[in-house]
Structures are given as structure tokens and as C-alpha cells.
Design a protein that fits this description.
Layout lengths: L2 H12 L1 H7 L2 H9 L1 H12 L2 H7 L2 H12 L2 H13 L4
Helix pairs in contact: 1-2, 4-7
Length: about 90
């Protein structure tokens, strides 16, 4: 993972939202294992998301995320994450 992304991830996990998210590991794992989670994972894998993160290609990362949130499964997953975080 690029150093910038690693630092951004570390900074996020040190924030209040990051700590809140870390405390919901079991809920996140259930969500990731759900039908919508599997669909989103498949979309990201087919779109080369992992390679984009490894190479630090922010444009490809943004495109992959936009593609996901524009699907029904992605929108539902995002809604569940927002609920989990208390943002909705």
C-alpha cells in the first residue's frame, strides 16, 4: 500500500470515527458477508480496486467507489454503514 494511503488509513483509525468503526468489527464482518457485501466486493475486484490501492492510483480508486455507490447493492451497503456509524 502506498505510504500516503497507509498514513491516511492510520490517521482515520486514530480519529473518533475510526475508533467507532473498529469497535463494530463483528457488525462490519456480517455486513461484508451479506449478499450486498459480496456483490460490492465482486464489483471492486473486477474493477481493479486492489491494484489501484496498491499503486496509489487515486483516480482509479475514486472511479471504482463511484461505480459501487451507483449500484443498488452499493447504495444499500453504504446506507447500512451510515446507520452503523450513527450518521443516519
Amino acid at each position: 500500500m502506498s505510504t500516503d494511503f497507509k498514513k491516511a488509513a492510520e490517521d482515520f483509525m486514530s480519529s473518533g470515527d475510526g475508533r467507532k468503526l473498529a469497535g463494530k468489527k463483528d457488525e462490519i464482518e456480517r455486513l461484508a458477508s451479506s449478499k450486498d457485501g459480496e456483490t460490492v466486493r465482486s464489483i471492486l475486484q473486477k474493477g481493479g480496486f486492489g491494484d489501484a490501492v496498491k499503486s496509489g492510483d487515486t483516480e482509479a480508486i475514486k472511479n471504482a467507489i463511484n461505480n459501487v455507490v451507483n449500484t443498488d447493492a452499493g447504495a444499500r451497503l453504504l446506507q447500512q454503514l451510515q446507520k452503523m456509524m450513527g450518521n443516519k
